[in-house]
Amino acid sequence: DILVIGSLNMDLVTVTNRMPTVGETIIGKRFDQIPGGKGANQAAAMARLNGNVTMIGRVGEDLFGKALIESLKKDGVNVNFIKEDKKLSTGIATITVDGDGNNSIIVIPGANYGVDKDDIDENINLFNKSKIVLSQLEIPIDTVEYCLKIAKENGNYTILNPAPAKVLSYNLIKNIDLLTPNETELEIISGMKINNFDDVIKASKLLIDKGVKELIVTLGSEGSLYINKDIEKKFNAYKVDAVDTTAAGDSFNGGIVVSVIEGKSMDEAIDFASKVGALTVMKEGAQSSLPYRDEIDNFKE
Ligand code: ADP
């Protein structure tokens, strides 16, 4: 089984011809309410790919929280261990998209920042039942660090999707089996400016020297790089018409986890995940764009 510890957000998306200036009120075009948050996106992605997924996280005691839980449940995620925080509101992101497709976003983490050690300690048995533990950085980093420590003590394979990027302590790094940054996240985590593909390799090697066992660096439409201390291998992305890249990284991570748990090789897992990512960018929104297993199996470039 797969255990995800991470965030849930309701994305409140307004579409407008142009952004309002400060102090101005304008009439926009459309409003959508789309489940998001990297933790929930990755959990939903894996459930749609037929993974057996349990999620640990927090929402507030409000309607957004109930809607987010309901949506994950509908996708087949085990939501029994998502708590309602007594004090904090459900995480939200207000997203404004203009006529050129540019967006500006405000995130209020709310209950996501309430996820703490207790959420791990109360659910130790879930670690025993799981093979892979996956997390991101939209919950407190101390909680992630503790979670990966417990996971390694339980013999789990640990994956950290380090988004949004933060500098990682040695105590966190030493418990990561697979790190999955995109290019900008890799820059922040390695502290190295990246100008070209050689720099991606150099920055990845810096992290391997610090104790990360394997990395997959995602490079958008350029594909991805797999690297460990012995091997480096570049994978191309599938060629598709991208309309919205939201959640591409999330679904890609989900694809990797589901393949690995099915016993596939890393090469096969990356190919599968690249199809998942490609299908995701063909649709708008976060969880609204995540593909289902049969779409991957029938995918043709
Ligand atoms: P993030 O969303 O975290 O920035 P990326 O944009 O790197 O992640 O996307 C993750 C993966 O999804 C890529 O490695 C690639 O396989 C796939 N992908 C992303 N954008 C595209 C695209 N425009 N066309 C095809 N595949 C894509």
Automatic annotation (TrEMBL):
GO terms for cellular component: cytosol. It catalyses: D-ribose + ATP = D-ribose 5-phosphate + ADP + H(+); D-tagatofuranose 6-phosphate + ATP = D-tagatofuranose 1,6-bisphosphate + ADP + H(+). Substrate binds at residues 9-11, 37-41, 138, 250. Its EC number is 2.7.1.15. HAMAP family: Ribokinase. Keywords: ATP-binding, Carbohydrate metabolism, Cytoplasm, Kinase, Lactose metabolism, Magnesium, Metal-binding, Nucleotide-binding, Potassium, Transferase. Its cofactor is Mg(2+). Pathway: Carbohydrate metabolism; D-ribose degradation; D-ribose 5-phosphate from beta-D-ribopyranose: step 2/2; Carbohydrate metabolism; D-tagatose 6-phosphate degradation; D-glyceraldehyde 3-phosphate and glycerone phosphate from D-tagatose 6-phosphate: step 1/2. PANTHER family: RIBOKINASE, SUGAR KINASE. The active site is at 250 (proton acceptor). This is Ribokinase. CDD domains: ribokinase (cd01174). It is an enzyme of class 2 (transferase). The gene is rbsK. It is found in: Cytoplasm. Homodimer. Requires a divalent cation, most likely magnesium in vivo, as an electrophilic catalyst to aid phosphoryl group transfer. It is the chelate of the metal and the nucleotide that is the actual substrate. ATP binds at residues 182, 218-223, 249-250. The lineage of its organism: Bacteria, Bacillati, Bacillota, Tissierellia, Tissierellales. It comes from Anaeromonas frigoriresistens.
